[in-house]
Predict the structure.
Amino acid sequence: MGLITGTLRVHQLQDALHDMEFRVQEITQSKLAISHDLCEVADQAAMAAIEGKDSEAIKSLEADKMRLEAFEKTLDARMSQYNSKIQAIQTEMESAKKVVDYNIKSSFTYGGGQ
């Protein structure tokens, strides 16, 4: 890989890294919203129990809670995938940067000296 190719690869990897980091931020924001929704569902279930509402309302709230928890697990799995991709991109970026550094060093070394 030459100097220009290596530099382009580093920039491509930086773009991919930024994309993955943005996706992780989106998931984090979604998880915060789910946590808020779970708190609201728990509050509603507590109020329903205190007010003596029928078990159908409580069952409906429990179903909502389970749905939100399942969605949160899906987001956790997706976040784990993105974090793995981020690590792989960072590893490849380090390798590409070493190639670029080597090419710079070999291109601008005069007289065979180090």
Notes: The chain has a mean pLDDT of 90. Residues 3-98 form one domain.
